Amino acid sequence: MKQFKTKGLSILYGFGMVLLFWWLLYILLDTPAIPNPGATITQTLKIFPNQLAYHLWVSLKRIGCAILFAALVGTTLGITMGLNQRFDQALSPIVYILYPLPKIAFLPIFMILFGLNELPKIILIFVVIVFQFILSAKDAVKEIPVSWFDSFQSLGLQKRDALKHLIIPAILPQWFTALRSSVGVSIAVLFFAENFATSYGIGYYIMNAWAMANYVNMFCGITALGVLGLLIFMVIDCIEAKVCHWKTIETKMKRESIQA
User: Fold this and answer.
1) Rounded to two decimals, what is the model's pTM?
2) Residue 86 CB burial class (10 angstroms; 0-12, 13-18, ≥19)
3) Can you give the residue ranges of the ABC transmembrane type-1 domain (predicted)?
4) Nearest 5 degrees, angle CA 248-CA 251-CA 256?
5) Where are the domains of the chain?
């Protein structure tokens, strides 16, 4: 209970600091491009049910599909690379070459190959974030001490038992870190992708408002996008706290030892 209270106060503090910085920009710059924070929040609440909600829902579906497939494919490949040296030697050079490439430039190619629908946007996000899951899973598996695998073999347990009780728990902390990073990257990539061949999505809404010089609605979209990102991160934190409960206990013990 105390942890959730602290988390809530931290979020309120973050909102307060952002609003303060926004208000200072509004006062100091005195430009229509930076609207009044109070008026923007009021307008956001007003247009949310009829306009923003659907745009956010469309964007959330695109992000969700891409992250789901990237997590499944990337984690599977990463675990396999971490366990199988030959597989790792075959795929690692390809991953290291493709990972740094600016894959956002492939959107026109995806649109030519897969049409002007949802699929090119989802594929673009997928190819951008899948490498983070691959590398995080591979590195986490390689960090597991060999003696732990020997212990499982000595007990006569099957590979699926090692996967369930050793490998997956070992990679989860890094996996959740990759998931958080992927959410942020996905939102940035989606904002770009939604400016092409679409009439829905929060990225389209923001840029359309900008093109019409409706800066209040533009900031309404930005505000809604920020809140969406916050809610996603809060959900991830809650899931991690339950799934990786030992990590919470370990962190608490470290803090207590430092304070002592």
Assistant:
1) 0.85
2) exposed
3) 56-240
4) 125
5) 35-259
